[in-house]
Every structure is written in structure tokens, then in C-alpha cells.
Amino acid sequence: KATVAYGIVELLMRSDTNNNVEALDEDVVQIDNFAVHVSKKSSRQRHQLWDDIKGVSMIYPELALSIEEPAYLSCLMAPEEKQGQFGRYLEVEEMMTSEVPPPENSPVRTAVAAAAESDDTESRTTDHRCYYLVAKVLYELFVNEIFPEDCSLAEGVSTVTAAATEEPAPKRAKSSFPQSLDKAELPFQRPSIVRMQQLGIPASLCLMTDNLLESALRGDNGQSSDDAYKSLRDVAEDLHLLLLDPDRFVFDNEVQSTENMKLRYRKEKLYGRDKEESLITDAFCRVSRGKSEAFFIGGFSGCGKSMLVNTLRARVNVVGGYVIKHKFDALSQERSLSGVISAVNQLCLVLKDRNTPPKIALLANKLRDEFGADIGLLARIVKNVKVLSPEFVSPAAAEEAGGGDKMNARSVGFTLSRFMRLVSSPKHPVMLFLDDLQWADDTALDVIHTFLSDTMGSCMFFVGTYRDNEVHAGHAVFDLMKKLESSHVPTNKVSLTGLDREDLNTMISDALCLYPRICKSLSEVVMQKTKGNPFFVLEFIRSLKDRDLLKYNFHQKRWVWDEGTIRAEEITDNVLQLLSSEMNGLSDNVQLLLKVMACFGTKTCESVIGYLVDSAEYSAVRDGLKKADSDGFIERNIEGTFNFVHDKVREAAYNLIPESDRKQFHYNLGRVLHSVCEGKDVGDTILLIATQINHGKEFILKDDELCLPFAKLNMAAGKMAIDSCRHKTAYAYLEVASSLLPNDHWESNYDISLRLSFMMASAANSSCKYDDAEIILQR
């Protein structure tokens, strides 16, 4: 029915055109002055489907339109995808029709005749009688009753019924909404719209019909509200929106309480980045032809850098490519080579999941042939290579890896590059995404240069994002760009800014499930506050809801607001303050969880949460997980970790801990984890424990009995980091261990001192700190 209405509106916009006679080869259902053409097959069936409508014609004037989905859309989608569509993208094309005289008293004939008297095309398309006709058609299509005469057009636009003369209910935020469904309290006062509501017609169609009648009755005397239609083109766009996304814009939300009412953000949709999306897609297409390439994306936090990259994931998977990612963290010590190693470890798991056993066996043979006696070194650096072949972690391989202590960043990079060369190809390109490069150092980026400048067969698409307001001209990111260009590696760079007004309005329209034309007043306020930053926009809208400046009216079944009140309110334009204010209203359990996760960085392993739950101090964090997830602060990914949805969310969560208390909070957290995990094989969690405890080193030094145990803890963390070739990280832990030993440690703890000195010298040498290594050995 919405398709029919859409076709009729398109006809009315073209009603000044005169066409010749040509018959249509479909069955025809006549509606007043209109004829709806449907396929013959469907007309014999009891239930007709929405896509059986082939076109709509108008008897007077002689005009017809075909309604169809573009053929290219069908070519782009698999059959199962087409069947799963929930909306319909339509195009209309003018056709020839037969000339049949319309009824003398037809409202269409009256409207078109009036429009024909004017030479102004815009005035013809916006004639008030056309609005009245569309409202009448909508009512009779959906209600299946004769349209009640709310007013008489014959008496002119200035004549309205008593119900229609009342001013439309203003958008409001803090008012108390009607609690009953008495007719006098309904937001719609016209009898026809009240009737539509009573019959359960979707609120979006009730609103559209009401706005059409308002345009018809008041359009020419300047009394219409902002919601009234200004042209038939606006009507057509609203109807097309209903067809594109009926789940969002047609079907009413049946939630019965404000507490459960959610803003329906499109988390998967990228707004206002069509040009950049095309650029990054084209770049990857070039890579899939066999040439490595780099793509850098700069922009403020929250502008959608990661979202832009994520739009490419599906395309990479479709062509047989592999996507791996690492996000650098401001709080973590893991800023060097470990980030790249982590991504390569992910690649091993992806290879295992995406290939058959015979193909995995073939890949393992290639690795064995390529690395030969060095296969143990690869297994030591990339521990997940064991999933490709058990032989890579055999005792022999481990013994062969003994020279790994002497490996520096250059040799690690060379080993990783050999691995990437074997697993990547034009048929299976690898997309490496490193997020937040402003926190990466030159060691990690040098390895990226090694990957991309490899002339022996690597096929890699590197994507790096960074906050361009947090990097200086001499940052390693720009050095990498220069090196790649000098190595003749194609390098692209884009910078993202805020959304423009149209895209921002579309985002808000989608979130509120309201027609874009109605959201413009709210969008203007939001634009002034957020400058179009997508993440800030979402948080700002959420804050309006929390403060009842944006409220869901269950009678109108739509969100309502008062832009004047919003402008007058003192609402911060700082996203961190918005988030912190929202978090302060959360329960103690949720706040505790957010604080703990913020201490760990942008992500937390589920196993770590499990360890904390076993303690008395943090047993409540499990209860906070569900609430934090449902409120949109964190999300769980397929790797078994809980991530903050954005860096700013983690930053706001960390701000929940007073700055003066942060060292103590970290230290207490580390102590509890240490006591729970003591005696257990917790793997890399030992690095997490040491990091937390080291924040409170000043507290350790106050208790001599704690110094030696925590020095051993840092030595264990350093050893684990060395084993995985994270030498800079290892050196940091070993430095702490050295500082915790007593002054007479060579006499009182000779064995520990000797072992620590050799480990520190090895880590310093592998981190290219040659002078430090020499000094350590001379002690």
C-alpha cells in the first residue's frame, strides 16, 4: 500500500506532463482517479506481495509510472540475500497511458486544473489540493473506509473544522504526557487521524496523513507548523523511506515503559563517508591484483576512523582475504613490536579457521621448506603458528629457538616478513589494521615498512589510523609515510572531519525512527554542540534522553523534544564530561567494573574477570558486566574479551577514579589478582598483574618484605616477554625488578642478581640499547 501511495505522489509531481496512448500489459485495479498495475500471476493469488506492484497510472491527466527495483541491485546480491531484504529501494520511470476522462467532481481533476492555471512549476507541485488528495488516498488505502470530510476544500483553505483550527501539539521534553487514551487527550485531534490511531494504523502513517492535511488546510495562509509538508517531493521521500526500512519507520515500537525504550542507533552504518569508503575500497582492489599498498586515516577521536575501516572487512572476506587488527593503548606498555606480533598471531588462527585440513598441511610444508632450521625462531615469536602444525612446537623446535635471546627488532621483523610472504597472495591478500598509531613507536612501524617494501611476493594492505591532533610533525607515523614513498610503495592518506548537516540529520532520524524533515530542528542544535563528530553526536543524544530533554511519547509513538529548552539548558560540549556524568549515575557494581576494565586498557580478557570474581573485593564485577553491555559502554567480541566501545568511554571510566587514588587503585587490583592467581599457570596474565602492581611501586618500597617477591614477579614477567620477543616490554619489567632489590643484593641474593643482570643485558641489546647493555654487564 505504501508502494501504491509512493507511485501516486510521483504521478502528481509529474501531472503537468501530457503523454500519448499506449496500453499496459498488467492487470489493473482502479482506485478513484488512479489505476494500480499488478502482475497477472499475483492477481490470481489470494495474497499479493508488495513486489507484485508494477506501476501506477493516473486517468487524468494521462500519465503512468513503472515502479521497480534497479536491475543492478539484483546482480549484486545472492538469492538468499535478496529474500532476506527487509526493505525495498525503488525507482520510477514514466510510461505511456491511455486517455480516459476523469469524473467531473474528481478531487484530482480539480487539483490538477488549479495547478495548470499557474506557470510556476513549484506552485503546481505544492498545491494544497494535491496534499489533500494524498491524505485521502492514504486514509482509504490503509483504513479501507470512505475518507471522513474533516474540512471542505470547496470552501477554501481558510475553512477548517474546530478540531483542525487548534494549534498542533508542540514538541516538548519535560512536560507530563497524557496518561489515558481519551480522545480529547490524543495528540492528533482530526477525526480522520484519531480513527486511524484507533484502528492501529502505524504512527508514522498517522503523522504523515496529519501533516498532509495540515499542509492542505493551512499551507497558503502561513499558519502551518514546522512539520507540515513544503512540497510533494518531501512526501515522496518520506514514503520511499518507509519502503526502504519498514522495520524502523513503519512498524511501531511496542515497548511499554520509558525505561526500556532505546534509541535505535545504526551501529553498522557509516554516515557521510561515501568518498572515503570508495577510496579505501579502490585501494584494496589494487592490492588484490598483487601489489602491496598503505592507507592512512587521520582525524579527531570519534570521527569514525575505525568504522570506515570496518566497512571493508566484508569485502576482504568475500575475495578470500584475511583481516587482522591490533589497537595500541595509551595505558599499556605494549607499544612496540608486540602489537604487530599480536596481529600475526591472530592471522594464524584465521588461517586455521578459513582453510581445509589439506590446505593447512600444504601451508605448513611451505613454512617448513622456507624456514628450515629457523622454524623454531618463528614458533617462538608467533606462538599461534602451532595451530598450523604440531611439529612447530616440538622439543627440537624449541631447542632450535635458543638463539632467540639474541634476536633484535630487525631480525624479528625479517622473520615476520618471511612468514607474511608465504601466507599472503593476490588470491588471499592480508589486510593489517593498526588502530591508534599515535601511541605506536618506530619499532612497530619499521616492521610495517619491512612488510610493505618486500619485493619478493608479499600481498598486503596496511591500514593505519591515528588522531591527527595528537601527533606532531616528527612522529613515527609521518616517518613511515616518507619511507614508504621512498620505497615506491603506493601510499594513501585521508583525513576525516565532522559530518555535514544532512548526514547528521540522517543519523538522528535513524536513531529516533522519525522522518528526517521532522528532525532538522533537533539536528541543528546537535550540530552546534558537537560540530558533527559522530561519536559525540550519539553521546549527546543519549544525554538528552537521560535528562528528559528527549522523551518518548507513547500516545504519539514517537520521540518528542523542545529545541528551545535544549538550547537554554547548560549542556556541556565536552564528550568526556557527558560520559562521566552518565557513569556517575550508574550502580556501584557497574562503576567498579568500568574502573577495573579501564585500569587494564581498552580490552579485558574474560579469564581475568573470572579471576577477580573469585576474590571478595571484586566479586561484584560480574554483576556489572550485563548492565555495562546493555548500556553500550562495553561489548564482547569473538576473541573472548570485553572491549570498551570507544577510547573516550575508557577514558571517562578511568576518570571515575580520582587522580590522587589511581596508584593505590592499580596497586590494590594487582595485589588481589596476584593472590588469586598465585600457584596457577595464568600465561600472559602475569604481565597484567605486574603492570598493575608496578603502578604502586612506592607502596612496595615501604615494606621490605614485599620487595623481593615482587622483584621475582617482574623477573617472571620479563622472562615471558623475552620468550615472545617483546624485548622493550621485558626491559621495562626487569628495570622495576632491579629497583626492588636491596642495596646489598649481590651479597644477599647473588643468584637472582646474576640472572637478572644477564636478562636485562639481553633485553637491552635486543632493544638496540647497546650502551645500557654494556653498562649492565660491567657492574
TrEMBL record:
It comes from Skeletonema marinoi. Pfam families: AAA_16. This is Orc1-like AAA ATPase domain-containing protein. It comes from the Eukaryota. Residues 269-454 form the Orc1-like AAA ATPase domain.
